[in-house]
Prior knowledge:
Elements: H1 2-5, H2 10-18, E1 21-26, E2 29-34, H3 36-54, H4 61-72, H5 79-83, E3 88-90, E4 93-95, H6 100-111, E5 114-118, H7 125-138, E6 144-149, H8 156-159, H9 165-183, H10 189-194, E7 198-202, E8 214-218, H11 226-233, E9 241-246, H12 260-268, E10 274-278, H13 288-303, H14 316-320
Parallel strand pairs: 5-9, 5-10, 6-7, 6-8, 8-9
Antiparallel strand pairs: 1-2, 3-4
Helix pairs in contact: 2-4, 3-4, 6-7, 7-9, 11-12
Amino acid sequence: MVALLGSSDQLLRIIERAFAADIHVRGNEITISGEQAEVDLASRLFEELITLLERGDVLTADAVQRSLAMLRQQTEERPADVLSLNVLSTRGRTIRPKTLNQKRYVDAIDAHTIVFGIGPAGTGKTYLAMAKAVQALQAKQVNRIILTRPAVEAGERLGFLPGTLNEKIDPYLRPLYDALHDMVDPDSIPRLMASGTIEVAPLAYMRGRSLNDAFVVLDEAQNTSPEQMKMFLTRLGFGSKMIVTGDVTQVDLPTGTKSGLKVVQEILEGIEDVHFIRLTSHDVVRHRLVSEIVDAYAKYDAENAAPTTGPRSTSPRRRAGR
C-alpha cells in the first residue's frame, strides 16, 4: 500500500484531486464512491498502477498522471503496457515511452523501414530514435549507427568560425553527442566512432553514399530543403532503417525556402513501409511548462497567421526586411 499510495500518501492525494469521487483507504482496502463513470475510471487507474507495481516498477507522480491521461483518452492500449515497455536499459537506467504516442512511435520503428517522427520540442522524437538505434546495434540487427542533422547556416557564416571544419560543425551536432553519452559508455564512444560503428556527421556528408546495414537517424529534418530530403532518403541501403525527426513549427531555413519535412509528407504519405507519427504537446516529457509553452505558441501562430488571399505588401520597409 505504501508503494501504491506513495510516501505520506503523496500519490493518493494526486488521485483524489483528479476525481469527483470519494476515495477512502482502510488497511489494505480502498473504497471508491461517487458517480459510476468516475468510480469505474478510478478503479481502472488503481488496477493499472497495481499492474505496474507487479511488474517491478516504482510508481511516481508522473506515472500516475500519465496513466490517468491515457485512461481518459479511452485508448485500446493499457497504460501499464505503455509505461512498462523497455526500449533500452543502459548505465543503470531504463529508457521507456511515457505517452501513448511515444509507444506507437517505438512500435512503428520496429514495424517499418522509414519512420517520420514529427512533433514539438520535448516529445522524445530524437531520444527514442537513438535509443532504438543503440538497441538495434546491441542486438546485431545492424552493423552501425549513423546520426546526422543539417548544419543550418553552415555556408558563409561557418567560414568565419575559428578552427577546423569538424570544430566548426561540432556545435550543430552537439545535441546528438549529448544523447549518445546517455546511452553508450562514454569511454567506448571514441573507439566506436574511430571504427565507424557510430558516425555523427552533418547531412552534407551523406551525399553519394549507400547506407547498408545501418540504423540512420536524421534530426532537425525541418531544416532540410526538399532536395536534401530526397538525397537523404535515397541513401537507404539493404538491411537499413531510417528515422527522420523534426518540428515543422521551428524551421530555420532562409525565407522563401520550403522545408523538406513539410513537402515529404505530401509526397510519401500512404507509401507502404513508410510511416508518419505525429506527436503533440501532450507527448512533451520535459518540464510541465514546456507543454504549455508549445500550446501558447501554437495558439499565437494560429491567431496571427498571415492571410492567404489579398494583395501582398510592397512597402519599402517590407522589401528592406527580406
